[in-house]
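dumping this here so i dont lose it
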């Protein structure tokens, strides 16, 4: 081989090696980046359209007026009526009134179009009521004091429209009047791009989703009531952002219509026909396949507003992140009250889940502030699998909360707020860690021995704040010794709603009190009030049972009628399915006395 040929051959080999190495590095980098991104919160995308709506005032004055009826009268330009179809071909503002009993509005203009509704009634037995093919932004505005009703047919001659009101491009709903939408085919309000709902009152009945968009959905300050057979509000590819307003959503008949979900104790997989019933995609089905209140692919962000959600499935659901920083949420859910596949953050607001299977669920849950009250038929708060793990929720889980957590499982972080949990399953459950550095957390835990007030995989560290967790001792876990001082009390008989347990400091001041309307035989106290080297007194129903000297870490004690006995090295757990005394099932209220008045459970 000649020297030149060797040089060419070596050069070709070098280029091939560099290309192959570059491809390998590319995939490694992207895989690592994707993996890391799944452990981080993703926030709702910023909506430039919503900002524009906030900054602008809709000018309803126009020379273009349309009166629908037996004879349709049109003044101005840009509109025409033929064979039941009102066509808007030019950009601009149009005021519409009257009744159209067999037809629809077809917006063919490519510029921005505003339709001002002044007591409009449109019924279309064969299709949608409003269709926009290519308008840059379609704005539907209801005049003050008016009621406007749109009703479609159960079958469409043309399936280009996905709902009673449909736009291929951005859609804005605004005004001071009322808009009633009766969707018999699929969605009530649908858009292939972005939807912004500002002012006005909306009454929506939908065969599928109430409000459905491919991109961002932003609710600024509407009064909106949705009764849907599918999802209430869904962003198929992006985010839902709620900035305010009054939002009332019922899906598929509400939580009372949902099948009862049950679990097998001792680490078994969830047994339910809940998800098996619906396996088709919505596009290939004659019925809705999702029944959540607020659902988004990327993120749900709630910063204000009053929300009442009664849902067959999750009340709030994101395939990635949920962020709640304000507002008032009143929830009844057939499944989770609030669910994020990867991340869930609560930094403000009031969340009351009166009925749910699990309260808060995500890969990683962080509670910074706010008031949270949850009543769950299974876990109250569950930090479980995120998207970096593809295993089923319970598959390969460390048995009974012990042992190493599977990679990809999240953690529960509480740094502030008031949290009250009433759970038939685990109160606070994390497949990895629980870290508490602030706030006031109370758990009215399970009465069955297959669950515990706390359930964690690797550690539970409390460095500040108050944690009070009671329930069955069968699967009970204490906090770690390397955190702040704690008392782990086990009772030789079952306590009930007529009983209370109090901890007084050395001066006789009541610092902690536990009273639940559920039965319990185990309580964990962890609080800054348990000061080093102080001697505290344990009382049951006002009767002193003995003193305990706080010497650091967790103090384990058996409490009997005759007094207190230290449990050296921790309490010896009873056998499977056994506890101290008979466990009587039942749900009820409870309250915690902080020494300065009662902290009363609102249920």
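and the seq i came up w/
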């Amino acid at each position: 081989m000649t020297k030149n040929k060797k040089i060419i051959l070596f050069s070709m080999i070098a280029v091939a090696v560099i290309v192959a190495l570059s491809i390998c590095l590319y995939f490694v980098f992207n895989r690592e980046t994707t993996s890391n991104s799944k452990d981080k919160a993703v926030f709702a995308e910023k909506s430039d359209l919503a900002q524009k709506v906030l900054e602008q005032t809709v000018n309803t004055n126009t020379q273009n007026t349309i009166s629908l009826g037996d004879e349709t009268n049109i003044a101005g330009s840009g509109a025409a009526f033929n064979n039941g179809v009102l066509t808007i071909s030019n950009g601009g503002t149009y005021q519409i009134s009257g009744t159209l009993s067999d037809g629809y509005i077809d917006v063919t203009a490519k510029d921005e179009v505003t339709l001002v509704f002044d007591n409009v009634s449109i019924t279309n037995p064969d299709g949608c009521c409003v269709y926009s093919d290519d308008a840059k932004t379609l704005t539907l505005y209801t005049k003050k004091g008016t009621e406007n009703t749109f009703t479609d047919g159960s079958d469409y001659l043309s399936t280009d429209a996905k709902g009673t009101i449909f736009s291929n491009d951005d859609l804005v709903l605004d005004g001071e009047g009322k808009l009633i939408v009766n969707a018999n085919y699929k969605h009530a309000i649908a858009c292939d791009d972005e939807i912004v709902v500002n002012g006005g009152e909306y009454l929506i009945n939908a065969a599928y989703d109430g409000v459905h968009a491919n991109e961002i959905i932003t609710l600024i300050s509407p009064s909106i009531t949705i009764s849907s057979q599918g999802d209430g509000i869904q962003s198929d590819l992006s985010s839902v952002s709620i900035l305010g307003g009054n939002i009332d959503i019922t899906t598929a008949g509400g939580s009372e219509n949902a099948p009862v979900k049950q679990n097998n104790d001792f680490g078994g997989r969830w047994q339910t026909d809940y998800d098996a019933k619906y396996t088709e995609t919505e596009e290939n089905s004659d019925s809705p396949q999702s029944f959540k209140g607020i659902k988004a692919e990327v993120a749900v962000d709630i910063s204000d507003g009053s929300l009442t959600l009664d849902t067959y499935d999750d009340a709030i659901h994101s395939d990635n992140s949920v962020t709640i920083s304000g507002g008032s949420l009143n929830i009844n859910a057939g499944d989770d009250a609030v669910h994020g596949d990867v991340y869930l953050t609560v930094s403000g607001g009031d969340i009351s889940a009166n009925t749910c299977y699990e309260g808060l669920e995500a890969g990683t849950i962080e509670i910074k502030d706010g008031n949270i009250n949850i009543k769950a038929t299974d876990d109250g708060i569950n930090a479980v699998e995120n998207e970096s793990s593809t295993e089923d929720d319970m598959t390969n889980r460390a048995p009974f909360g012990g042992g190493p957590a599977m990679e990809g499982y999240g953690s529960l972080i509480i740094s502030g707020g008031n949290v009250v949990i009433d759970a038939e399953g685990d109160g606070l459950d994390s497949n990895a860690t629980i870290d508490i550095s602030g706030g006031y957390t109370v758990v009215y835990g399970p009465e069955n021995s297959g669950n515990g007030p706390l359930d964690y995989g690797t550690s539970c560290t409390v460095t500040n704040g108050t944690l009070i967790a009671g329930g069955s001792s069968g699967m009970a876990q204490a906090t770690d010794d390397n955190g702040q001082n704690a008392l782990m009390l086990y009772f030789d008989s079952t306590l009930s709603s007529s009983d209370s347990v109090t901890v007084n400091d050395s001066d006789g001041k009541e610092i902690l009190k536990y009273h639940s309307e559920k039965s319990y035989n185990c309580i964990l106290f962890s609080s800054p009030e348990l000061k080093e080297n102080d001697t505290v007194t344990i009382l049951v129903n006002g009767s002193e049972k003995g003193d305990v000297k706080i010497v650091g870490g967790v103090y384990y004690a058996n409490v009997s009628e005759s007094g207190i006995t230290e449990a050296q090295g921790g309490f010896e757990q009873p056998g499977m399915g056994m506890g101290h005394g008979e466990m009587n099932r039942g749900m009820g209220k409870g309250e915690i006395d902080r020494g300065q008045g009662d902290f009363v459970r609102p249920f």
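Residues 255-276+295-600 form one domain.
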